[in-house]
Amino acid sequence: MNFFTDTFRKWLGMLTNPGKTAKKESKKRNILESLAQVAFAGVLAAIISVLVPTQGMLELKALTGAASFYMISLAMIPAVFVLFWAISASVLYVFAHFLEGKGNLLQHAHIIALVNAPFGVLGVLLGPIPAVGGILSAAANLYSLYVLTIGLREVHKYSTGRAALTWLLPVLLLALIIVALVFTGFVSGLA
Fold first, then answer.
1. DSSP H or E stretch at residue 155
2. Do 166 and 96 meet the contact criterion of CB atoms below 8 Å apart?
3. Strand (E) or helix (H) holding 170
């Protein structure tokens, strides 16, 4: 099989049968394959964003001109996909090991790529749909958390509860930091 066929097969597997696909893929350790999948997803998302832009993308196009818009989109969107993957995989790996996960970083990064990539493309596809795009995107995001939980469970060989805590703890920590910063700003504004 070639890279594209194999990638789409894995993405479809993660979307439709995450338990079986994650179990099979959790043993893989090829960081270049993971990076290529995320970069490919970013390129697909960039092409979709150029062909079917959201309101924000249309405003960027008006601001920068068509040629600049296409170049910025085709360069920045894949870079953002790769950066988000690297950061999310790193943060989740720290929490996975805090919760006594058994998987190594390469296995972990591969599963995170298999979750981030297809759901990133799906989000870009759903975004421009008027009225229901936001609802469909929210539903896809919730489902992605389920798929992420299953993937983490398979890679780290721990319970589903610990797998859910792996992504829930950083979200709660970030929310706590934001609340603390807002409260600090509010209190200092009163003084």
1. helix 133-156
2. yes
3. helix 160-190
- Rounded to 5°, the CA angle 149-11-75 comes to 105
Give the range of the structural domain holding residue 69, as residue numbers without chain letter. 3-190
Count the domains in the chain.
Answer: 1
Half-sphere exposure of 117 (CA within 13 A, CB side): 27
Q: Which residues of 42-80 are buried (b: 16+ CB within 10 A; e: fewer)?
A: bebbbbbbbeebeeebeebbeeeeeeebbebbeeebbee
d(CA 190, CA 55): 38
Q: What is the pLDDT of residues 140-161, one digit of tens each?
A: 999 999 999 999 999 999 999 9
Predicted confidence (pLDDT) per residue in 53-80, tens digit: 777 777 777 887 777 878 888 889 999 9
> Taking the complete model, does pTM exceed 0.85, yes or no?
yes
